[in-house]
Each structure stands twice: as structure tokens, then as C-alpha cells.
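Slide 14.
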Amino acid sequence: MANELRYRRILLKISGEALAGPQGFGIDPQEAEQLAVRVKEVRELGVDVAIVIGAGNLWRGKIGLERGMDRATADYMGMLATVMNALALMDAMERRGLVTRVQSSIQMQAVAEPYIRRRAIRHLEKGRVVIFGGGTGNPHFSTDTAAALRAVEIGADVLIKATKVDGVYDCDPLKHAEAVKFARLTYLETMNRRLEVMDSTAVTLCMENNLPILVLNLWAPDDLRRALFGEPVGTLVTA
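Slide 15: predicted structure.
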């Protein structure tokens, strides 16, 4: 079965909202548990898993900017919030028996390893899940861009954008019944149509390094496993 895998090393980009409970903010341990279950299913297939998680459940820099906050300060606050989410997810995964490491691009050695590319790759080779916190370590870059950058650095076969929708549509399928889903897109089509797959910096980075982006519903029971074996799931963005 392992010989049929299309992707042997993946980077999962998960939004911070995935950890929020019914109230829409904060960290819900039950949601973290559900994410851990999904990741464990993938690890049991023999796939290397790295994760970048956002911070929208704890902090949205846009709110600060609207009230006059300095952009860099707002971004650093968001980066710190991603580390909180990474620790919550690490805890849930280790309780599921997954050996997990959190690496942060902002040094905070009491709670996370510093991001070191070669060490991250070594963790993956040993079967550990690696969660990258702290974004890129620089303001003015999103966690989408951090995900693309880390995916390229660790030699991932695909960047999987985990959402609660089953792919990319030409308009919001929750608001428009006539929305059309794309099975495949090119990087340029994604940017020219201004489709909300990932921000343009992240898409450009993937395009320059020929890294496929796969958008799928992480919470659909079997979609992620099927995608790893090359079945047509979600929306695939390639050259």
C-alpha cells in the first residue's frame, strides 16, 4: 500500500480557526483532538507530516491596524499566537501517541526549539511530526507564506491547504448555490482570478519551486487519505 503513495512528505497549512470552538475564538481542546486524529491517520500511512498553523482564533492583526496599531507590532503578536496554537496541537497529538516537535522562528527556548532546517528534516526522517510556529519570523508575511517557505525548505512533495470546504470555487459556495468548483488550476490562473487559495506571495513561491498546492476539506472523513494516494480530491494547483 505504501508503494502507491503519491505524496510521502507533506506540509499541512491549518487555519487558527480550526482550533476554535463553537464560539469562534480561543482554543478548544476537543478541536485540537480532532486535528490530532487526522494527523495520526496520515502518519500511520508512513507519510512525513509538517504543520504550519495560523492564529486567527487568538489574534487578527487587521483589528489592530484598524485602530492605528503599528503593522510590525500587530504581526509579531500574531506570530506569538501561532506558537500558542502549535503548543496546543502538540499536546493533543502527543496524547494520541505522536512524537511531536514545535519549532519557532522567534526564539523562545523554554517552550519550543529554534527553527533549524536540518534539524526539522531529521525529525521528519525519524517519524516525528514537526509544527512550525512563529511564521517566517518577519512582519509583513502571512502564515500562508510561512507554509510555502517551510514546505520548500523541507522538501515537501505537496503543500496541503486544509479548509472546511472541499476545494476552490469561483465564488463562495456557502453563499452562492451556483458556485463552480475547480478540479485543477495553474498558479497563474489562481492569481489572475484572485481566487482565495493562498496569498500571492505564497503562490508565487510555490510556482517558482514547482511545489503543488492541494486545497481540500480536512474534516471530510476520508479525503486526506484518498488525496495522498493520488485520487482526485479537492483542487490541485500546479504549473
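Speaker note: The first strand starts at residue 9 and ends at 14.
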